[in-house]
Amino acid sequence: MKKLFAAAAGIALLVSCAPPFDLAYSSAAVILSKMTKESQLGPLNNYSTGSYSSTPAFYPEKTASGVDASRGFYYMTDPGNSQEFLGFVQPDGLGGYSSFVSAPGSLYHQDPNYPAAVAVPVKAGDFTSLTSFDSTNPSNTALAVVQAVVATTSDTLIYGLSFSALGGYGTAPVAAIGVSVSPSAAATDTLYFLIRDSGGKFWEGLATMSSTGVIATSFAYVVPSPPETLDFLAAGAVRVLYYHDPTSGASYASFNAGGSWQCWKWWVDALGVFHETQLTGVVSRIDALLTTGELFSTQGGIGRVYDSNGNVAASFPMGNLQLAYEEYVSGTPRVFFSLPIVTGDKHVSFAVYSIATSQIDSLKY
Predict the structure, then answer these.
(1) In total, how many domains does the chain have?
(2) Which of 128, 219, 348, 363 has the CA that lies 20 to 30 A from 165?
(3) How far is Cα 75 from Cα 163, in angstroms, rounded to an integer?
(4) In whole angstroms, what is the distance from residue 72 CA to residue 80 CA?
(5) What SS3 state is found at 32?
(6) 75 vs 96: CA distance, rounded Å
(7) Among residues 336, 351, 289, 296, which one has the least CA distance to residue 62?
């Protein structure tokens, strides 16, 4: 009971005027009791609810062999999503801190249908990859690997990937409209990207990414070789949430059209025939493709797990629990979450939780 009460108390701190009993927050405490608490970091003394977003996200540091949950990155925006803030947290609290309005591959995004940005730690070291696209200038031509380390006051661009410089991806200029990082048991990460050329054709590529950036010799096409038409994507679409499953060979695009979320799946069968289908059962934003082949959504504070055909496998309340990423630990994939705990209006701490990916469906009740 003490464990359950403590989890509920931590979530309640996020709502200054919460009623004595709130079903959503109390239910979220139940799922926390099923997870492993990895660490708690902070408080960060320079946080202000009036200056920054009320739900900052924390990403534990990845290493070449797993995850170090005792340190990592926090990411937040100002209330209008016009400026991003990236910081590094170590065991004794606040580490490096940076803020920026725009930089190659790390641009603020003002479309409310999408997360302002997706920050993914890079194996290994004090680096993070920021993948976000600017809706006010949707060139989507670059991805950045940014460094935020202890005792620094500004971000350092370690590597800027220009998609237009890749070559071989159709008629120039080309732009990426979707990027994702796939968890790996190796010492490096695999980056997948969906590119559209100026002729309207789509190309899927992959590359290996380390703490020094994308390894130039690792670029390859996602099998089968492009180009693809992908007629279900609206002409002029500048951003989708894109994922590729290297096990099944299927790819997915999650996007907002007319105020509603759609999810499409495409693949090539053993005879080389291209197939595409809308997963009509998926009506929420997809935030991750898990190594189980399942799709995971956290939209609206509800965790929804869909199988590869779009059927709901599990649903559970998350409160303000934030998805960090999925990563291998000792050869086993685990899903990591962070819980921002705001005390007063000046301090925020982060509790880190994880669960084996194979057990995520057990969070339903």
Answers:
(1) 1
(2) 128
(3) 25
(4) 25
(5) helix
(6) 12
(7) 336
pLDDT band at 228 (very low <50, low <70, confident <90, very high): confident
Residue 227 preceded by cis peptide, ω within 30: yes
Tens digits of per-residue pLDDT, 298-316?
A: 998 899 999 999 999 999 9
Q: End-to-end alpha-carbon separation of the chain, Å?
A: 18
Burial 303-319 (b: 16+ CB within 10 A, else e): bbbbbbebeebbebbbb
CATH number assigned to the domain comprising residue 34: 2.120.10
Task: Residue 47: name the closest of 107, 125, 99, 3 by CA.
Answer: 99
- The angle subtended at Cα 36 by Cα 88 and Cα 86, nearest 5°, is 15
Separation between Cα atoms, residue 62 and residue 154, nearest integer Å: 21
**Structural domain of residue 322, as residue ranges?**
2-363
Nearest to 360 by CA among 26, 120, 35: 35
Q: How far apart are CA 74 and CA 94, in angstroms?
A: 10
Edge-first strand order for the sheet with 260-268 is 241-244, 251-257, 260-268, 274-278
257 vs 347: which has the higher pLDDT = 257
